């Protein structure tokens, strides 16, 4: 089992557990404040991580273009996406919201083909169809 697969499984587990806590928290918390709290927790833990990484000499600053792209990813992937995700959880069931939110690989696949020229294979197309089918089935 590759390191990438292990980390992907750990991320999937974390993404699977988080909505349950967030749905419980959103019962009495506005989504905008929940977003603030989530960002604050992320900032604290990331700051601690960066502190120890800088002590080991592994920390390096990104170049300007990388910084811009990472910041734009933060705006879309953290701020905007999480706000809408929290609004969806506030009004919907976790079992219906998560499959739709989890369908983001479909858009990422199409953008990666257009922007990076990544290949379109039969297995990738089948995977996309399975994701879309799963969203339809779980959304009922």
UniProtKB/TrEMBL annotation:
<keyword id="KW-1133">Transmembrane helix</keyword>
<feature type="transmembrane region" description="Helical">
    <location>
        <begin position="35"/>
        <end position="52"/>
    </location>
</feature>
<dbReference type="GO" id="GO:0016020">
    <property type="term" value="C:membrane"/>
</dbReference>
<protein>
    <submittedName>
        <fullName>Transporter family protein</fullName>
    </submittedName>
</protein>
<dbReference type="Pfam" id="PF00892">
    <property type="entry name" value="EamA"/>
</dbReference>
<keyword id="KW-0812">Transmembrane</keyword>
<dbReference type="InterPro" id="IPR037185">
    <property type="entry name" value="EmrE-like"/>
</dbReference>
<dbReference type="InterPro" id="IPR000620">
    <property type="entry name" value="EamA_dom"/>
</dbReference>
<dbReference type="InterPro" id="IPR050638">
    <property type="entry name" value="AA-Vitamin_Transporters"/>
</dbReference>
<comment type="similarity">
    <text>Belongs to the EamA transporter family.</text>
</comment>
<feature type="transmembrane region" description="Helical">
    <location>
        <begin position="64"/>
        <end position="85"/>
    </location>
</feature>
<feature type="domain" description="EamA">
    <location>
        <begin position="4"/>
        <end position="138"/>
    </location>
</feature>
<keyword id="KW-0472">Membrane</keyword>
<feature type="transmembrane region" description="Helical">
    <location>
        <begin position="97"/>
        <end position="115"/>
    </location>
</feature>
<feature type="transmembrane region" description="Helical">
    <location>
        <begin position="122"/>
        <end position="139"/>
    </location>
</feature>
């Amino acid at each position: 089992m590759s390191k990438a697969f292990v980390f992907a499984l750990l991320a999937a587990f974390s993404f699977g557990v988080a909505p349950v806590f967030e749905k419980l928290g959103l019962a009495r918390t506005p989504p905008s404040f929940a977003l603030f709290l989530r960002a604050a927790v992320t900032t604290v833990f990331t700051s601690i991580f960066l502190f120890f990484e800088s002590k080991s000499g592994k920390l390096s600053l990104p170049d300007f273009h990388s910084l811009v792209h990472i910041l734009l990813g933060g705006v879309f992937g953290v701020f905007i996406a999480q706000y809408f995700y929290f609004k969806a959880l506030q009004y919907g069931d976790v079992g219906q919201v998560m499959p739709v939110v989890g369908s983001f690989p479909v858009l990422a696949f199409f953008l990666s083909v257009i922007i990076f020229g990544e290949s379109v294979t039969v297995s990738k197309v089948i995977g996309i169809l399975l994701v879309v089918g799963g969203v339809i089935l779980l959304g009922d």
